[in-house]
Amino acid sequence: MSTVNLSEITKQFGNVTAVKGLDLVIKEGEFFTFLGPSGCGKTTTLRMIAGFYFPTKGKVKFNERDMTSVSPEKRNTGMVFQNYALFPHMTVFENVAFGLKVRKINKTEVKRRVEDVLKKVRLEQFIDRQVSQLSGGQQQRVALARALVIEPDILLLDEPLSNLDARLRDEMRTEILRLQREYGITTIYVTHDQVEALTMSDRIAVFNLGECQQVGTPTEIYNKPVNDFVAEFIGETNLLPVEREKQEGEIFTFSSKDLEQTVHVAHTELNIADYNDTDDLYMSIRPEAVEISETPIQAENVFSGTVTLVQFTGESVHTFVKINESVTIKTTALNRGPSTYFKEGTQVYAYLPENHIRVIPEAKGDK
Amino acid sequence: MLNAEKRKTILLLIPVVLILVGYVLYPSIATIVESFKQKGVFSMENYNDFFGEKSAANFEALWNSVYISLLSVFFSALIGIPLAYIFNRYDFPGRQFFSNIAIMPIVLPSLVGVMAFMFLYGEAGLVPNAIKDLFNLSEVPFSIGGISGILLVHAYTMYPYFYMTTSSALNNIDPSLEEAAYNLGSSKFKVFWKVTFPLLTPGLVAASLLVFMVSMASFSAPFLLAGGFRVLSLQIYFSKINGDLEMAATQSVILSVVSISFLLFMRWYQSRKDYRMASKGIGAHRSEVNNPVLKGVMVTLGIVAMIVLLLPHATLLILSLVPEGAWTWQTYPTAFSLENFRLLFEDPNIWDPVRNSLIMTCLACIGVFIFGIITSYALVKRSFIGKNLLDILVMIPWALPATVVGMNLILAFNKPSPFSFGQILVGTFWILPLAYFVRFIPLVVRSTTAVLEQMDDSLEEAAQNLGAKWFYTFRRVVIPIIMPGVLSGTLLAFVQAVGEFPTSVLLYTLSNRPISIEIMNQLRMFNMGQAAAYGMIQVGLIAIVMFIAYRFFGVKSENTL
Questions:
Q1: Nearest residue of A to residue B4, measured between CA atoms
Q2: Which residue among B3, B466, B480 places its CB closest to the CB of A98?
Q3: Which of chain B's termini has less CB crowding within 10 Å, N or C?
Q4: Per-residue pLDDT tens for B25-61?
């Protein structure tokens, strides 16, 4: 087991900078996720940890050991690839045993350890199958077993679930988490799927355009995004550009050119993110925080509008309320039966509670 | 920064580059240099002579080569395309069997094929004479020779290129495309011309150019059938035999220029048009023929085609049983025995060529096998400056006609050179295996490259990540995965090397003469039986190797072609 310490990592491919000045410390035994859209540098970073790329600048350390230019085969990391990268000419046993054979472990020990790990991933009955005869989920588990059996210091998972169908993905999420807890291995997980990131991780690093935007626990990332990119990328949100107006005790007021009324926001760390005076600001409110009602609500931040669209997803109902030509607010409520659904065209009042709004600066970097 | 990866790339590239420069580039340059020399002095005289009035024969040969090639394309297409359409779009009894027979011409080495045609349809051939006797004619009704003979042989041996490209294109067309056209109200005729045919064109153009190049390079057919008719590949041979190496070099350069410009045109065309199917998972769809008359016609057609296609093979088999002296002036052979095959094991003079062929072919195959693996790996999985250049260098022997490859080697190694370790190679045993090796590099590299490109980089990375060093990964992961591609390329190289005639005839010596040369000698002595027996041995060797490859390595012969 190891900590991973990335300091000032920069990686350039020709003129393109894939990762810019990244600083990260991943703790021992932690399930750490790199989350971001495609091309954000998350996979590049993972591959620098695995040793397939060498950083242009900066240092990679495992514990206190400098691994920056150590070749991949000497790093003792276990990687699960997006396409699994199972050796097609080998059986399940041979695939899993590969890393052990390389380590010149004797045959009986290899057999014992392979059987052991296959039991853990529940594939013991497939030990002699050719990998091409396995289903996607089974192949995935062989790939996991192959990475785990060498007892790696760090487990690296590169979008391992992206090739599976939705139901299998749910199942494998739990499976991976169970194995990670069982082995207690420091794990780095790359994904663009926010649900995976939120449900599995101890901590998440959100990437965009080669830079790490925010590092935090899933609740921090969701509830206290540091900028508009993070707020928008993780979960759904309503974003509106705002300007600071004035402070009245514990309440700040903000105005928006798209709204006639001002918006009141509680002055707490949860509701107002750090920003500089030069930053453009946004207010963000999650759809599930917005309350709507047909009768007027006596509070600040109440906007009247028309229901334009009602989407039924089963567990919840999305209601889109059009405030004016340029602002439509999305709201979400749990499904409480047909009587609670709004009809399209209804006049309603939308209440944005002042302790649920978050004011955030615009993400830096070239857009 | 010279890191470990770069060092490996360089180590891999050193042998590849050395071999390509030494045995492909240097000989080609030697030929070009030679073509600008007259009596050892630099001059343009040779080119003046070629195009000038002094030797109209050369220019005529060039013209003949081009128009024979054009006609070959036409006739091959005429046979290959309809055959492919019928076999792939209609279902009738025996369809599968007939379509397997349809690629049989490919297993006949070119010289052997030409020989069989001579026996069948030549002046003294079995078919014209049988007709003559049957109808009591005073003369044979027809016989092939000269241009008609060459064309017939070309059509027979080259239509499979059209047949195979059309078949694979037809099978790749998503049936829903045609169904969409019908659904939109097109008639059958319109669907064919507006949808099916345009989708076939890229394949057809590729096949046309391939046939064109192959017939430009064709040597065996003109060699045996041309009579006084001149073609360029043959002119090179005559110039060389007459000792005019400078003219032979000039002719080689001109023939190469024509061939390579067609190759470049082909590459350009292929890059320009890309009708890849957008949809996946295509099922074959054949309409069943229900009309009994039509069914009968098709089956008959299939049977007739099968007889025509297999007649050369059968003739070869029968004639190989004719002992020496039993078919000289007679219309038909008079006796049959296994004499020719018995002699093979008893008379060392007759066994020698077989042994030579086997040894030299195996040497060349081992060479291309190893070289192919390393070169393809470097080309596909490594990045370095000058990759395109290396790629071109690898493909040069494929673009060059065999005769030119032979001439290149003669002109490069008839004097000591660093690449032959200061030896003169011409006139030694080693020049022929070297020629085969050079000729068939592209075959192995191409088929290996195709498989390697399918192999995801992550496989190597996974092995590395699990702690395997580069060489271990290469040995245990890369090589097993690409083996089918390497083997099918090597198999094809073997098949062609066993029957290789043009380079053999330019480079052989008495002590290393291969089977093809001995066939030529036996023909000259009118010992048809022994010649046919040698032909059968070539066919047999090819069949055995194909069978072994299929049985033990799962390499299908069709895939290699």
A1: A71
A2: B466
A3: N
A4: 888 888 888 888 777 677 777 777 777 766 677 788 8
